[in-house]
Amino acid sequence: MLEGMYAAAAGMYAQQARLDSLSNDIANVNTTGYKPVRQGFHDLLYSEGGLATKGTQLGTGAEVSDMGRSQIQGALQQTGEPLDIAISGTGYFQVQEQDGSKSLTRDGHLQVDKLGRLSTDTGQLLDPKIVVPKGDDASKISIAPTGDVTSNGKKIGTIKILDVVAPDKLRPVGNTSFQVTAESGPAAQVKSGSTIVQNAVEASATDLGDTMTNMIESQRAYELASRAITTQDKVAETAIGVKR
After folding, report:
1. What is the pLDDT of residue 64?
2. pTM score, two decimals?
3. Which residues are bridge partners to 46 per DSSP?
4. Rounded percentage of the chain residues whose pLDDT exceeds 90
5. Share of the chain residues as helix, strand and coil, in percent rounded to the nearest 5
6. DSSP state of 31
7. What are phi and psi of 205, to 5 degrees?
8. Residue 208 in contact with residue 132, Cβ under 8 Å?
9. pLDDT band for position 12 (cuts 50, 70, 90)
10. Angle at the Cα of 78 (from 74 to 80), degrees rounded to 5?
11. DSSP structural state of residue 17
């Protein structure tokens, strides 16, 4: 009889995990380059039924599984800022974290740090590094669709677009950044099909309407699982009363 309670409790836990993920997507609806989490459900272990249900398989509920980040491109928003860039197509910018490790991001809000290096607004340096010559006006920087960066008509570097074989397997490390894993494969430069758009950034790929609908769906499923536990409790109480 307790199997029903276990299955319903597992369902509540799974829906709560999904609600947490959806809440995070909504919280990042205005985050540049944000990719929402994709989740699915899979069955937990089945067990053989007892005397009354002999020959049947009894489930123990469901569990949420992380299916990686959505690869849908967010809308490109024109900002008019010369250091704002976005990727049209697949791929990521490579940046260097504070600890020296490399990560990938689609957040193209760039700035010039105290040493003249191009970095994201969270302090990650572009990799390979691009340094604006001292005295050059950052507002005059030009960035071509190929990634070539020029200042005062002189090329000072190239912003590369990298991608991996399995982007769903990238590991999120915060600030809309990801690091490669053995499952994602190494990052390699995109040969064609993707370009850089200057004076624009990529908006969050979160679809607020769909996300709110999914949240309501999960809330209803959570409530139903909770009621199932209450029903199982009443059935157990009745059975104990009959035995007495």
Report:
1. 74
2. 0.78
3. 59
4. 52
5. 30, 30, 40
6. S
7. -85, 5
8. no
9. confident
10. 145
11. H
